Amino acid sequence: MYETIQFIHSYWAYLVLFMLLIASFNGIIGFAANKEYSATNFRIALFTLIVSHIQLLIGLILYFTTPYFKMWAEEGMGGVMADSTLRLYNVEHPLMMIIAIVLVTIGYSQHKKKLTSGPKFKKLAIFYGLAFVVMLSRIPWATWF
Q1: What residues form the membrane-spanning segments (predicted)?
Q2: Which phi and psi angles does 42 have, rounded to 5°?
């Protein structure tokens, strides 16, 4: 079961990153070009929100089924924090991904409250862009390639 969840989590991450990139650029271009906010822009933002939340749920399931999680009991807090690999998988990656998903959620919620196109695009560009950078900062790149 662990391998299946890890496989899904790893490949769903490509979709999340792709959608965050598209949504971020959509927000930047829409704001810079002073475009009118349309149903397509709403769908891009919503789909990005949905795929990122699905990734969070898959990631939480994976977190509690991974062998790394058992290291909390075996090594303790000091042991996990002293080992860079354990710290990445048990602390840094989960925490930063949760922060990124919170940024996506805030950006989506904030953009819905705006009445005109400029501020909508601006909120999406800022929050989705920050979420994209946060995600890129703590992806375990060694296991991706």
Answers
A1: 12-32, 44-64, 91-109, 121-141
A2: -65, -45
Query: Do residues 108 and 41 make contact, with C-beta atoms less than 8 angstroms apart?
Result: no
**Cβ atoms 21, 118 nearer than 8 A:** no
Contact of 114 with 99, CB cutoff 8 Å: no
CA distances from 91 to 36, 70, 139 (A): 41, 13, 12
Whole-model pTM: value is: 0.91
Token output for 18: 């792709």
Q: Are 45 and 23 in contact (CB under 8 A)?
A: yes
Are 118 and 76 in contact by the 8 Å Cβ rule? The answer is no
Domain boundaries, the chain: 2-144
Largest CA distance in the chain: 56
